[in-house]
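Weekly modeling sync, notes
Attendees: S.R. (lead), two postdocs, one rotation student

Agenda item 3: backlog of single-chain predictions. S.R. asked that every request posted to the team notebook include the full sequence so nobody has to chase files. The rotation student volunteered to paste the first one in as an example of the format we agreed on. Action items at the bottom.

Example entry:
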Amino acid sequence: MEFYHFVEQTIQLDNREERARVEHFLANHSLRLEADVDYSIAIYRQGMVVATGSLAGNVLKCIAVDPEYEGRGIAGRVVSRLVAEAYSRGLLHLFIYTKPENAGKFSQLGFYKIIEVPAGVVLMENRPDGITAYLKQLKKYKRSANMVASIVVNCNPFTKGHQYLIEKAARACELLHLFVVWEDRSVFPPEVRYQLVKDGIKHLPNVEVHKGKDYIISNVTFPTYFIKSPDEAVKTQSLLDIKIFAKFIAPALGIKRRYVGTEPDCPVTGRYNQTMKTVLPGYGIEVIELPRLSIKGVVVSASQVRKHLRQKELHLVKELVPEITYNFLRSKDADSILEKIGNEAGGGLIGAKKNRNGRHT
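Predicted structure, as returned to the notebook:
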């Protein structure tokens, strides 16, 4: 084999020139450098990029090798470097989304297939018993019941709309398993969202609240960098998430019904709901779509709550959220979150919060 000298370099993502080189290389391989990438490396030969790979949290993505240099261990070098970086950050459970034709390569590099969607995606993880261990924990909550149902929520933050949907579903079934999406990409951190949900539905004795962890997938974390059409990306993500739920999570808990709220405003969520209605019955799971709560003719949503927070309209927020959420927003624990929301709008929330006596300050 001819000897080649390769140079490895960490890409400074805020450096336009370095980033452009990687983006151009990926574009030549029908890939994109996604916005959520927080670490990238490139392998160079004679000043030209011949391979690259990136991290977004605990997901390895945007990995490509020039076909001319395949079979020289470069893919393994890229993956090893990304894994080492993730481990240095304390991220030990890692995932790769890849095309089916590349699954064998990643299997040789220590990743294990979880599930494949015919549309062209394989989800893999670096633990041979990853999802098995998660299901083992879930099965501790399996109970005999005439009707076991489920809801998946993000709650960014927990609103009266979420509370209404959960209460309606809880009244219609004997046992309800409620999963809180665990990605750390929402303004409200996962532990905060989880605790608000738990506190907000503790009056419902037949509801079990679970941390979604890595197997309840959201639109934000799903990488679409190798799917050309946005519509196809939504379809593929929906199928992947729904198949994981139907094949693994529902059987572990005996779930036979899934509740969702109607989605009049978001086409992506509407498409997701429609895919559920098509796919889940084939696994013996009924899908029930419930009308969402409206207040003064407006559908209650977490995005509307965040909008009011950005605009310093805490009195309007109070109309849309349960007392548990409102009290949290007025507490010191919410300061950093409110500051982040304010910064998204280009300004702080000075004057939006109330002091501990309840007066505007």
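Discussion: group reviewed the output briefly. The two ends are 72 Å apart (CA to CA).
Action items: rotation student to repeat for the remaining queue; S.R. to check formatting next week.
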